[in-house]
Amino acid sequence: MDRFRMIFQYFQSNSESVMNGICGLLALASVKIYTCLDFSCPCLPRYNMAYGLGIMFVPPIALFLCGLILNRQSLVMLEEWRRPQGHRRKDLAVIRYMCFSIMQRAMVAPAVWIVVTLLDGKCLICAFSGSVDPKKFAGFANATLAQAQEMLSRVPCKEDELMRNSTSRRAVSRYLRCWSQVGGCQLSLMAG
Fold it and tell me: Can you tell me which family this protein belongs to (predicted)?
């Protein structure tokens, strides 16, 4: 029982370090989850964007909520906010500081997830392959708009019979991957 009390006191006295460690573990877990995920775009014009952006932004929202829930300061801030007025006034500066601190820590894992997905590029290629101007790429110039949209929606699918050896597919894929990686680098520089 004394060991448990000593460990509990250690975590209480070093809660800042423990919270930073938990945020770091969430960030590492997000990278591991993404690398284990076998991303496969549906290659359908109506679903590509929703699927690609969903994979890019839904898990970070869940990671953000986990970061908020796991942060011990969330409960302290909530108790301070709900505390009756009494003789001591509520200090909004303290509540703002705690809120900023909580948000900052909770954003680590989602930011890592988004940077990793952007640097990988698969999600952005899936989401925006149908939005590319077909006139910029030679292989789509002679097709009708409907045909071009159908072919562009199949750009993320390397195994597709229609797009397997297409140089235009590779060009669109490289174009979108470059934009994705530029966004990932800029976001990582802003976050760092």
Answer: Belongs to the CALHM family.
